[in-house]
């Protein structure tokens, strides 16, 4: 696979015009399998001449090429005034209709305010919030009967609304006591396969739902406990779910129960 070359740093790609079919194919059909970073070829001169991409143009590039990151140094720091590229994006509105028209998957709740009403959002915010992964837990099932079994069975479904899968991360579940101490933990799930859409169908609008299942050792002492989901990188830095849930030391609290 061409992705193997990308992963081993033997290949460097830049965006090319549509007539460069091979380059476009790589970006759209192989990008899902390795982390993708991007930057804009802009400077004071291009900004002065108005040769800058709009926020929607950059959203399309980041989305269809599945970016995990983007350089803020290119387009945010060149110009020493308020008219640099990314500042312009902050004034460019993005709506659900805009994304529907372009065939871009999104989480409708991202457009809602704290009262559940549709609110004004801009292109800069959309790029900022969707680079890499944006994990939303959907359904949770916990199967355990106190004193009947020593295992807690957990099933959870999730959707990744981010541009890319969660590379170099591990996920799983844990049980915390009332003080936040981990008493049981297990790794579960494959974050590198949490695509927002089919990895080989760049223009699909079918949202993928991923499932995770695990068994944890049940608490043996009486008290209050919390079931949590975790997603962390190889340096032990934890990520938060996009759901509004309590977070304790990086653990996303899903359920509270008493033994």
Residue stretches low in confidence (pLDDT < 50, at least 5 long) are 1-17
Q: Strand pairing plus helix content: what structural class?
A: alpha+beta
- Mean pLDDT comes to 86
Q: Count the strands?
A: 12
Cα(first) to Cα(last) distance is 51 Å
Give the SSE order as H and E letters. Answer: HHEHHEHEHEHEEEEEEEE
Helical run tally: 7
Q: Helix proportion of residues, in percent? A: 10-25%
For the report, how would you describe the main beta sheet? 5 strands, antiparallel
Strand content: 25-35%
Shape: elongated
Structure description:
- With 259 residues, the protein is of the alpha+beta class.
- The protein is 19% helix and 27% strand.
- It has 7 helices and 12 strands.
- A 5-stranded antiparallel sheet has the order 8-7-10-12-11, with no helix packed on it. It has a 3-stranded antiparallel sheet with strand order 5-6-9, with no helix packed on it. It has a two-stranded parallel sheet with strand order 1-2.
- Strand 11 (247-248) and strand 12 form a beta hairpin.
Précis, in short:
The chain has 259 residues and is an alpha+beta fold. The chain has seven helices and twelve strands.
